[in-house]
Write a sequence for this structure.
């Protein structure tokens, strides 16, 4: 059974940091690009950042450059998103997704497996 489970969300203050994790099972994790998406209240889901199978990063949201750091650990079937200097614009539900094409895509529908998300709320 394929599963992607996000964790690490919570309520923080502006300027704080959070580390999100994406735990994968049921498929060969190392062969999949991992994308991070977020959906703010009243807005469409958007791509944030993606990491290819060769550990190349693709940033889709310029506002996170220098603040969000992605990583993956193929041995643990896990991806992480370290978020720092959070602000209220980062408030959203965050999702991870896996794409067998190995390369990244900013479209949520282009991913084969998708998690249920974890909520991040930033108060100013």
């Amino acid at each position: 059974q394929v599963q992607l489970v996000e964790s690490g969300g919570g309520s923080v203050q502006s300027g704080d940091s959070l580390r999100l994790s994406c735990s994968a099972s049921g498929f060969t994790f190392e062969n999949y690009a991992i994308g991070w998406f977020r959906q703010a209240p009243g807005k469409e889901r958007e791509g944030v950042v993606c990491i290819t199978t060769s550990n190349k990063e693709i940033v889709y949201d310029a506002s996170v450059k220098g603040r969000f750091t992605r990583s993956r650990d193929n041995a643990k079937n896990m991806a992480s998103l370290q978020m720092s200097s959070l602000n209220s614009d980062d408030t959203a539900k965050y999702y991870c997704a896996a794409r067998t094409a190995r390369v990244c895509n900013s479209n949520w529908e282009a991913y084969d497996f998708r998690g249920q998300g974890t909520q991040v709320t930033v108060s100013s």
User: Anything to note?
Assistant: The CA atoms of residues 6 and 114 lie 10 Å apart.
